[in-house]
Amino acid sequence: KPSLRNRGFKLVLLSIRKLTDISDINFTNSELVDGQGIVWNNTNQNWNHHEFVLSDYAEISANASGTEQTGIGTSFVKVTQFDTNVAAKESTADAANDKITLGATGEFICQCYLSFEGSNNAFYTFAIFVNGVEVANLDAQRKLGTGADVGTISWVGFFAGTSGQDVDVRVKTGGTVDVLTIHHGTLSIEELD
After folding, report:
1. Are 134 and 170 in contact (CB under 8 A)?
2. pLDDT for 145-156, tens place per residue?
3. Cα separation of 126 and 182, whole Å?
4. What pLDDT digit, counting tens, does each position of 69-79 carry?
5. DSSP class per residue in 62-82
6. 53: helix, coil or strand?
7. Residues in the chain with pLDDT values less than 70
8. What's the predicted TM-score (pTM) here?
């Protein structure tokens, strides 16, 4: 089979979405090039062009903010260290307010990655909140040995949301005066069809 990579194209896999007819498509030989889909068709033994369109998405990030957030304790508080709007379509990326506002009603996938440091021997629990309510099973926990440790944490999950609702990341520990410094991180959502 011919390969686009051998012809100088860059391979960038974003997402594979709905196709009109998938009966003759072999997904193991698919490539996305600059937002356009190139898929090997087993029936006619040729590359076919498909557009893979993300309907509603947004992403915010924290890029080496290094700002210590205080007051982390036994109740969830909003992570307030996002500083960059990465991308958005329909939904609104709002790093200035550390949130994403949904632009549609439906089922969404949420992904979060954080590189952080904090207090000695503290268990950090991070969770996704939609409209101020914790999403069940969309959380993760990590313990830091010393305050100078920089650990990473990531998690992915699904939730139902309504247009206009806000999505944010919150954190808590078992302590009363813990701190949190995000070094790098992202929060992204995408509507599922």
Report:
1. yes
2. 876 778 899 999
3. 12
4. 999 999 999 99
5. EES--PEEEEE-SS-EE----
6. coil
7. 1-54, 64-65, 147, 193
8. 0.72
124 C-beta neighbours (distance < 10 Å), count: 23
Structure tokens, 193: 């069809």
Q: Which residues pair with 148 in a beta bridge?
A: none
Q: Other CB atoms closer than 10 Å to residue 104's CB: what's the count?
A: 15
Amino acid at 91: S
Distance between CA atoms of residues 174 and 151, nearest Å: 18
Cα torsion 121, 127, 129, 133: sign: negative
How many Å apart are CA 148 and CA 26, to the nearest integer? 48
Q: Please give the Cα distance from 185 to 193 (Å, whole number).
A: 26
What secondary structure does DSSP assign to 155-191, as a single string?
EEEEEEE-TT-EEEEEEE-SSSSEEEEEEEEEEEEEE
